[in-house]
Design goal:
This protein is α/β, with parallel strands linked by helices. It is built from eight helices and five strands, in the order βααβααβααβαβα.
């Protein structure tokens, strides 16, 4: 099984000052990937940086991530899973952000689990047939 990394896990890693390469160190030999929507969310963080220096640091960190972790595009197979998850959530009356449905769909389509930050764990766990692991479980910290 592989691991899809959610934005919340990457943000928590940055706040804890964990190096990008530590993703693989902490997960082991499992394949690791980032959905394109997560990459887009990270790029928004660069554009919203309060200073040019902060934007430069964030962009450099993203480039390091790209060296270690491939970005998975949203394709027709993932779209099928997205539709299934969205419909399941609507039927259950569960509200999950659209981007997180795309993350869950990517993970479920590939048969991967999703790595989340400590604040996003519960809504991912409401998605059926989706394995979820919290960053706190593999990298306890502040």
């Amino acid at each position: 099984m592989g691991v899809i990394v959610d934005t919340s896990a990457l943000v928590a890693m940055e706040r804890r000052q964990l190096p990008v390469g530590s993703i693989r160190d902490r997960i082991g030999a499992e394949p690791v990937a980032i959905p394109a929507i997560v990459w887009a969310e990270l790029l928004v963080g660069v554009r919203l940086a309060k200073t040019a220096d902060m934007a430069t640091r964030r962009r450099a960190r993203l480039e390091q991530i790209r060296l270690h972790v491939p970005i998975i595009g949203f394709d027709g197979r993932i779209a099928e899973h997205y539709a299934d998850i969205h419909a399941e959530c609507l039927k259950k009356g569960i509200m999950i952000p659209q981007n997180d449905i795309a993350v869950a769909a990517t993970a479920r389509c590939l048969g991967y689990k999703v790595l989340v930050g400590p604040q996003d764990e519960s809504h991912f766990r409401s998605v059926s047939r989706l394995a979820v692991v919290s960053l706190d479980r593999i990298a306890p910290g502040n």
